[in-house]
Amino acid sequence: MEARHSRPVRVLVIDDSALVRKLMTGLLSSDPRIEVVGSAADPFIARQKIKQLAPDVLTLDVEMPRMDGLTFLQNLMRLRPMPVVMVSSLTERGAQVTLDALALGAVDFVAKPRIDVARGLTGHAELLCAKVRDAAGAQVNRLVPGHTPAPRPGPIGYRTTERLFAIGASTGGTEAIRLVLAGMPADAPATVIAQHIPAAFSGPFAQRLDRHSRMTVREASDGEQLLAGHAYVAPGGRHLRVRRSGARWYCELGDEDAVRGHRPSVDVLFESVARHAGANAAAVLLTGMGDDGARGLLALREVGAATLAQDRASSVIWGMPGAAVALGAAQRQVPLEQVAEALLEVPARESVVR
Question: Which sequence positions carry the modification called 4-aspartylphosphate (predicted)?
């Protein structure tokens, strides 16, 4: 679901490259629903232009002179929180810094290649515009210095081979998933995750989740057995499915076409979980733009699985969970800080999975 505005979304472009500023301005201005009100070559100029121009959204480069993008973002979210879309390089360092930016409160990011930036950004013009439009309607919270929301500790002794959790997310999802997994005990049921993310970013994302979770978190490998106490992140650019063989579940990766624009697709993952885990599964659809995952969550509900959607108040973008609620796919709407507890409290069920 896109934010609805009676006027165009006002954007300030912040990048130290004159070429990128010109390119971004042109691409964004091609959308009649967006107005680029200015640009800035560094955060000090940007700070003045924010006061003068009152933009709705910033696009922010990660690496800039005089003050790096993360420092500027941290100050901004502490003093004047507003929607920010990061512009990141498709490198390992770019991925790490972008995940840091999302943790600080950036709404989303767009990746630019290190070579032939013009072609790379132009090829993603429609996606860039969509991300900026949706960012304008995002909920952005003030950053409290040194504060990270503390999840409730999960119960101990939860181990079972009969349960499977599935999580889907997009915009705002990297932090939402981190908080959900941080609330899980070390022996929680096996968990499969589909987050819309580029291929270069999914590995660092899984590593980051692993550092913040009592579970073992890794990027999923084809044919890998699902184990309790482990979470498996779909690699960027590949679909993740669950298949069952006997009493065990396995990861299955696929390179088929994107489904409704996404690979990995939450619908693809959820539908496979519905088919192979049935009522043994519990799933949650978290924050994100669009409607990926809504149909898959409905398929899960129809086979007796427990289905949750993040509530509007705690979602950065209530697109995907909102679409699931509209379809009647979610049995409950849950605040983000209660999602882990809600999944864990779902009782184990007797079911026949074919």
Answer: 61
**Residue 58 CB partners (closer than 8 Å, separation 6+):** 11, 12, 13, 14, 46, 50, 76, 82, 83, 84, 85
Matching fold, domains 9-136 and 164-344: yes
User: Nearest CA to 127 among 85, 83, 177?
Assistant: 85
Domain 164-344 CATH assignment equals 3.30.70.1400: no
Q: Is 196 a catalytic residue?
A: yes
- pLDDT tens digits along 265-295: 999 999 999 999 999 999 999 999 999 999 9
Digit-coded pLDDT (tens) for 121-154? 777 788 899 999 999 999 887 665 544 444 444 4
Among 321, 335, 319, 316, which Cα is nearest to 107's? 316
Tell me which of 89, 196, 202, 291 is the catalytic residue: 196
Q: Exactly one of 170, 202, 213, 272 is catalytic; name it.
A: 170
Spans of all domains in the chain:
9-136, 164-344
Q: What is the pTM of this model?
A: 0.88
**Residue 221 annotated as catalytic:** no
CATH code at 9-136? 3.40.50.2300
Residue 245 designated active-site: no
